[in-house]
């Protein structure tokens, strides 16, 4: 399995992900997505939105405020329950999550631990100029609550009937005790979540439906079954709101850990947010009730991480590294090169192709060094096809198109480039 440091260094060298605030010595486990990282991340988010919102007629999206009324977190149970057990080493004062330790002594210095105490993970701040209790607010620790709080507004304005879902992509914040492992666990991260509202008697059916959807989503990212494990979370270990949870775990280079989760949240949240009356009325029977909820949740950053881990390939024979990204996720779909940078005719022809294709796809341009070096650079960032304009191009308006994975080249007419690429992006 690929060493995580290999991925971290490729990400930095090739503009995917940089350490946050690096020139100031960094900020504990914060990471910035660079020019190629933001493309990859956006492609994942757009694919998700298209698949789960646009292609379905039982789904709508929202984009809610990051900071919500603190009463939201009281009603949801987060103020009371959203905590991890924290222990501190009596010698070196390092802090750890008690449930993640395998031994009862400090991994840094062997010292003894304090008794565990519950540490609330919500990130606090103040709204308004006075830093006093009345102005205390929290950055949301999950995107989910907005779908419950906005449920009635969405159901009424969109005239949605059960079953239907509300989707959201956005940032969440958790004051994690032990962030780390690159973008696996950060204090600021992104989630893609769906709250899918059903009648109580249908929950099992839709739980199974979403299990299937989550499995097929992984295929879209190019993640095979080999490193995925589905874990049924037993009674006692589930979040306070859940009656059934299945975690999708992945074998990361640093161990098997959570990637995504699927939970049956019952009507716990809607009951707590709408205590005075049911927020849903069946248009036919007139019956009023609190719908039950199936919640599939996906971490965006963990999606980026597994996509990169699965795509990373070392071709020892050809001495190259390439990212075998599904073409629809690749930051650039294609790169265009003039065979020689000092031949104005070749450069002009290549520029013309580059400018035309750029209107439709993200396209890279490279005229440095030799073609071999340019292939090498494009392979490392996962560009599926490289187009080279050579002397024959000037005569018959064809170019070579080289395939990232096989290294094979075919001649394609310039007029056919657009369909050639489009067909392969589905
Ligand atoms: P973990 O057990 O790893 O702390 P969790 O069970 O608390 O995760 P959820 O509350 O189910 O996580 O959050 C939903 C998804 O959000 C997770 O499956 C994961 O993909 C992502 N996620 C959660 N915490 C973080 C984090 N600190 N950094 C990056 N992604 C995260």
TrEMBL record:
Coiled coil: none annotated. PROSITE patterns: AA_TRNA_LIGASE_II (PS50862). The keyword Nucleus does not apply. InterPro entries: aa-tRNA-synt_IIb (IPR002314), aa-tRNA-synth_II (IPR006195), aa-tRNA-synth_II/BPL/LPL (IPR045864), Anticodon-bd (IPR004154), Anticodon-bd_dom_sf (IPR036621), Gly-tRNA_synthase/POLG2 (IPR027031), Gly_tRNA_ligase_bac (IPR022961), GlyRS-like_core (IPR033731). Substrate binds at residues 97, 142, 189-193, 295-299. It holds the Pfam family tRNA-synt_2b. GO terms for cellular component: cytoplasm; extracellular exosome; microvesicle. ATP binds at residues 174-176, 184-189, 258-259, 299-302. Its EC number is 6.1.1.14. Keywords: Aminoacyl-tRNA synthetase, ATP-binding, Cytoplasm, Ligase, Nucleotide-binding, Protein biosynthesis. Signal peptide: none annotated. It comes from the Bacteria. Transmembrane segments: none annotated. It is found in: Cytoplasm. Residues 3-331 form the Aminoacyl-transfer RNA synthetases class-II family profile domain. GO terms for molecular function: ATP binding; bis(5'-nucleosyl)-tetraphosphatase (asymmetrical) activity; glycine-tRNA ligase activity. Homodimer. Catalyzes the attachment of glycine to tRNA(Gly). Belongs to the class-II aminoacyl-tRNA synthetase family. NCBIfam families: glyS_dimeric (TIGR00389), PRK04173.1 (NF003211). This is Glycine--tRNA ligase. It comes from Candidatus Ryanbacteria bacterium RIFCSPHIGHO2_01_FULL_48_27.
């Amino acid at each position: 399995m690929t060493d995580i440091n290999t991925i971290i260094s490729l990400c930095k060298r090739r503009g995917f992900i940089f350490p946050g605030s690096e020139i100031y010595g960094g900020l504990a486990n914060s990471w910035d997505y660079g020019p190629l990282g933001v493309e990859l991340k956006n492609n994942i988010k757009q694919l998700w939105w298209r698949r789960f919102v646009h292609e379905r007629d039982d789904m709508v999206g929202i984009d809610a405020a990051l900071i919500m009324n603190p009463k939201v977190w009281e009603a949801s149970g987060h103020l009371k329950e959203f905590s991890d057990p924290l222990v501190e080493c009596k010698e070196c004062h390092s802090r750890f999550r008690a449930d993640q330790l395998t031994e009862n002594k400090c991994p840094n210095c062997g010292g003894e631990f304090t008794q565990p105490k519950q540490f609330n993970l919500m990130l606090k701040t103040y709204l308004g100029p006075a830093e006093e209790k009345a102005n205390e607010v929290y950055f949301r620790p999950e995107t989910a609550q907005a779908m419950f709080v906005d449920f009635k507004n969405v159901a009424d304005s969109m005239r949605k009937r059960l079953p239907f879902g509300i989707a959201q992509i956005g940032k969440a914040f958790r004051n994690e005790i032990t962030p780390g492992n690159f973008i696996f666990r950060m204090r600021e991260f992104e989630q893609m979540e769906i709250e899918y509202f059903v009648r109580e008697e249908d929950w099992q059916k839709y739980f199974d439906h979403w299990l299937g959807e989550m499995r097929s989503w992984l295929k879209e990212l190019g993640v095979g079954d080999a490193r995925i494990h589905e874990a049924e979370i037993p009674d006692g270990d589930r979040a306070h709101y859940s009656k059934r949870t299945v975690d999708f775990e992945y074998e990361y280079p640093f161990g098997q850990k959570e990637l995504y989760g699927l939970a049956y949240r019952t009507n716990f949240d809607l009951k707590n947010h709408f205590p005075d009356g049911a927020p849903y009325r069946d248009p036919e029977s007139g019956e009023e009730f609190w719908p039950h909820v199936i919640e599939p949740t996906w971490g965006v950053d963990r999606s980026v991480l597994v996509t990169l881990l699965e795509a990373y390939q070392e071709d020892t024979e050809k001495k190259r590294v390439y990212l075998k990204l599904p073409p629809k996720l690749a930051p650039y779909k294609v790169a265009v090169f003039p065979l020689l940078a000092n031949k104005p005719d070749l450069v002009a022809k290549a520029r013309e192709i580059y400018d035309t294709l750029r209107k439709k796809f993200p396209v890279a341009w490279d005229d440095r060094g030799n073609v071999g070096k340019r292939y090498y650079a494009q392979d490392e960032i996962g560009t599926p096809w490289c187009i080279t304009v050579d002397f024959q191009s000037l005569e018959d308006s064809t170019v070579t198109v080289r395939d990232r994975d096989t290294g094979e080249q075919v001649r394609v007419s310039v007029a056919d480039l657009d369909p050639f690429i489009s067909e392969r992006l589905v």
